Write the structure tokens for this entry.
Amino acid sequence: MVKPLNPSKIVMLIDDNDIDLKINGKIVDFTKLFNDTVVCRSGEEALSYLKQHLTKPDLLPEFILLDIQMPEMSGFEFLEQYKKLPASFTEVCIIAMLSSTLDFSDIQRAEANPYVAKLLKKPLIPAVLLEVVKENLHR
Amino acid sequence: MDTPSVKVLYIDDEEHNLQAFKASFRRQYEIYTAISAAEGLKILQNIDINVIIADQKMPETTGVQFFKSIKDSFPDPIRILLTGYTDIEALADAINHGDVYRYITKPWSDLELHNSIKNAYDAYKAKIDLRNKVSELEKTNDELNRFIYSISHELRAPLVSVIGIVNLVKMEGLYNSSGEYWNLIEICSNKLDFYIQKTLQYYKNNKNVAEHSPVEFKGLVSELISLYSYSDKDTEFNVNINQQVAFYNDAFRIEVILGNLINNAIKYQKSTEPNKFVNIDIDVDLQRAEITISDNGIGILNDHLEKIFNQFFKSKNHHGSGLGLFIVKEALTRINGKIEVTSDLAIGTTFKITIPNGKAT
């Protein structure tokens, strides 16, 4: 389903690993799909950013790349909290999970989650990112 | 010498038998006696008995009835039945339902009974030892599982970052900036990643649980093709899938099987062949899925055909891990599938797989 246009053109990266944040930030820049990148080193940090900016739609992301294996709050636990955010935001924001997992149950669990558009495998490749964005956002 | 810590419970409704038993064996064993099944049960509930001897002919509850009644609540003590006469029916019942180890006729001979108690205690010890060993093994196995799982995650995550960095180097046009070094890093990283993936597949395949999940071949095959042909786009795929009915089997293992075969079909192409192709035909009905994967690759030597499914078998000229087809075979065995292979060095290789269609769970 193609969701309505969110003009923010902001992408949010959630990952506890600095190197992966750097790599994925570069990949995102390379695709020129977004105007701005919000980098969060944990699910908690991402949630507090989202909550703080709920009234400022132009600062909210339209696309989130979410790592699965993170200490304290895993990607799945983040999603549990995320779904409590106002529908006006979650309905226009697309989430792709991003992980190096080869674990079948992780993959199934990610794909079964209604808030997750797709599970992308690390390393992220620009072509794959372009495709997911094309499928899910008005571009 | 018997250790005095062997605990024997003797149940008999005749007081003088209890006395005689105690007199004969008190030096060798720790003896507990009970005048009825109900009394015997009370002792069992309070003391860790190793061997139970019960008289068959007792008012209210017979010996066999007693053994039956404690079958689930006290499975460990070894049972010996005593009877004054040869009662075939009681005997058969005792063996079939009461888990009785020995049968001794009254009046007993001290030597025979002594030997029986000794043997019974050995059987008891063996039983307990075995159980301890099994639970030890289960614990070790469990730890190993968790260890491999965490290693595969922790080990792979930084490796995937390395591969990501190499991709960035390519995107920024720096790949050839340091001679062939980046290329060598990429080859080594991919090789290591391949081994980690195979190891993980092998370990997961070893777990006995086969789950029944729906398999949709069209999506699965196209996903696998795009995954494995990513680095090699020369090979043409002709995919022909006829699936009108739902198919249920272990989706993970089927993915492993098809993934390995498709990967091999791509990997073992002739470098000189201008029209490299892989044909995948899948036909699904209510009974089974029949899958044929054929290629016009380098083929397999006749001598090697029997060995290709062996663990760590590799041909001299090609550097595989020696695990791929072994894992395929193992996975198929777990899900009751079959595999056949025909190959001709001039023409190519064909794998034919049959997997039963299970029921939805």
